[in-house]
Write a structure and sequence with these properties.
Shape: globular
CATH class of the largest domain: Mainly Alpha
CATH architecture of the largest domain: Orthogonal Bundle
CATH superfamily of the largest domain: Transferase(Phosphotransferase) domain 1
Number of helices: 11
Structural class: alpha+beta
């Protein structure tokens, strides 16, 4: 916070003068650059002062706090030891010179319940140590809903992955590593490699409390929902400080790899259309549930592909229930991925299903163009895909300029035009003007080549064991 008039910025009086507000992002290698805005604001009457506890920052996601490594250790509060938040004013993050940013929306309470249907999961903010969760952290068993999932022992999963050996390693996510394992198709007992079915096993980093919260959300949501376009969660393990999840294995990996990885055979236009339909079908299902489920983290890396390029949504750690009753939105800490998050969510922390619709519009552009949502490799200037593509979406002649050159012109012009029109609607700056995902799905399905009857829409699992 840079005061533009006299007065100490360390005092409430100083803060109530003209200030410069800015919002930063935190990339995978630390802070990167000014992200959303920088403006002078007369704060008199808008600021309230209170102590703010810093949420755990996650690399690669939009977080409510930012730290500059060059400033050394900080306490997680603005200079002078006071947090500063907006009493009103729809602006994203409010940053202090302590190099931490407090989100503009009201801070979440220390306990954030996730309620899905008749289940309840407490994600109380128990502290974590460098070696795992403290003894004060409650047993996970009483926090989990009664879901249709297999409870694995740690020894089971060690056997399935050959003790998490390096040759079983598949990759690393935000809060843990993923390994390839083998289990019996019927009993789910661990087997030796080559026997039974392949599964993907995510092992949570023990020091990640934010990962623990997302682990709970993943179990809660995927433990209840069964849909052909949601990745199947088979089971979980919770022993001492070990938290693991067992998923169906998606052999073709993520959509991100097939769109952006060098040396990968480009997908045909028909395959891209089918993937868009699958993603729309998954989101439409989530939005049709009562209460609605907001996915909140749609991006190419979270869309996984099976051997036939059928797409499924994965990673429900950031999912939230939508507003209920007469509420119009959910107020929450701003998290997500740069380039995909809806602008009104970034600015206010107000979350609705239309936030997912915006992210879907970005994915449509990625499928059309083969370009990433944020491009950092063009002349050293960062540019979002939305900003680059929007001027070309309105006309058929200009639309050609955004099409993936690897398609070599082999795409249905009418289908591409439909993609462009839908993208414009989904990316509307006014969330109320964005379409419902059910309507987007209906439009996309008209592009699909005739085949077998439509697949089932999915189901909500009752809270009972198999």
């Amino acid at each position: 916070i840079s005061p533009t008039s006299t007065g100490s910025p360390h005092t409430e009086e100083g803060f109530r003068r003209d200030v410069t507000c800015a919002s930063f992002d935190e990339g995978s290698h630390g802070p990167r650059r000014l992200l959303f805005f920088k403006t002078h604001l007369r704060c008199s009457g808008l600021l309230s002062f209170q102590e703010l506890a810093p949420p755990v920052a996650t690399p690669g996601r939009i977080e409510g706090w930012w730290q500059n490594p060059g400033d050394g250790e900080v306490t997680g509060k603005t200079v002078g030891g006071r947090g500063c938040r907006f009493g009103s004013a729809p602006m994203g993050n409010f940053c202090g010179r302590s190099s931490k940013c407090a989100n503009a929306s009201s801070p979440l309470p220390s306990e954030v319940p996730l309620k899905v249907g008749d289940s309840f999961v407490s994600t109380s903010s128990s502290k974590a140590t460098s070696t795992g969760f403290t003894s004060s952290h409650p047993s996970i068993s009483h926090q989990l809903p009664t879901v249709n999932l297999k409870s694995f022992s740690l020894n089971d999963l060690k056997t399935a992955t050959k003790n998490f050996r390096s040759d079983s390693y598949l990759g690393e996510g935000g809060f843990g590593c993923v390994f390839k394992g083998w289990i019996d198709e019927n009993t789910y007992a661990p087997t030796r490699p080559g026997v039974g079915i392949v599964v993907a096993i995510k092992k949570l980093k023990q020091e990640s409390f934010q990962g623990h919260k997302e682990w709970l959300a993943e179990v809660t949501y995927l433990g209840q929902f069964r849909h052909e376009n949601l990745v199947k969660l088979i089971g979980y393990c919770t022993e001492a400080d070990n938290k693991l999840l067992v998923y169906e294995y998606m052999p073709r990996g993520s959509l991100e790899n097939h769109l952006f990885k060098k040396g990968v055979q480009p997908m045909s236009w028909a395959t891209r259309v089918n993937i868009a339909i699958d993603v729309a079908r998954g989101l439409s299902f989530l939005h049709s549930i009562d209460p609605q489920v907001i996915y909140r983290d749609l991006k190419a890396s979270n869309v996984l592909l099976d051997s036939d390029f059928n797409a499924k949504l994965s990673d429900f750690g950031l999912a939230r229930n939508g507003p209920t009753g007469d509420k119009t939105h959910v107020s929450t800490r701003v998290v997500g991925t740069r380039g995909y998050a809806a602008p009104e969510y970034i600015a206010t922390g107000h979350l609705t299903i239309k936030s997912d619709v915006y992210s879907f519009g970005v994915v449509l552009l990625e499928l059309m163009s083969g370009r990433r949502s944020v491009d950092e490799d063009r002349g050293g200037i960062e540019e979002t895909l939305v900003d680059w593509a929007k001027p070309f979406l309105s006309g058929r002649r200009t639309m050609v300029r955004i099409m993936d050159t690897r398609l070599e012109g082999q795409y249905a012009k009418k289908g591409a035009q439909t993609f462009a029109e839908l993208a414009v609607q989904c990316l509307h700056t006014d969330p109320k003007s964005r379409p419902q995902m059910a309507d987007v799905l209906a439009t996309l399905e008209e592009l699909q080549a005739p085949k077998e009857p439509p697949r089932h829409l999915g189901s909500y699992q009752t809270m009972a064991h198999r």
